Amino acid sequence: xxxxxxxxxxxxxxxxxxxxxxxxxxxxxxxxxxxxxxxxxxxxxxxxxxxxxxxxxxxxxxxxxxxxxxx
Length: 71
Prior knowledge:
The chain is mainly alpha-helical. The protein has one domain (3-65): 2-Layer Sandwich (Transcription Regulator spoIIAA). The chain is built from four helices and two strands. The longest helix is centred in the first third of the chain and has 16 residues, at 3-18. The protein has helices at residues 3-18, 30-38, 41-45, 54-65; strands at 25-26, 50-51.
């Protein structure tokens, strides 16, 4: 990942946040995660925005919303 990609992610994060949408990542390869850490994207979105699988993400979503929110 290069500086331009990181800038795009930062911009997308800001746009989504303004709309009340949380940016999360699923099944990120270790080398990509290291780049996200290095480029401070992890700090921006939060360490809890990374999930190892879609099932893990859905479980966290249902725990957060009590299962009452629409995906």
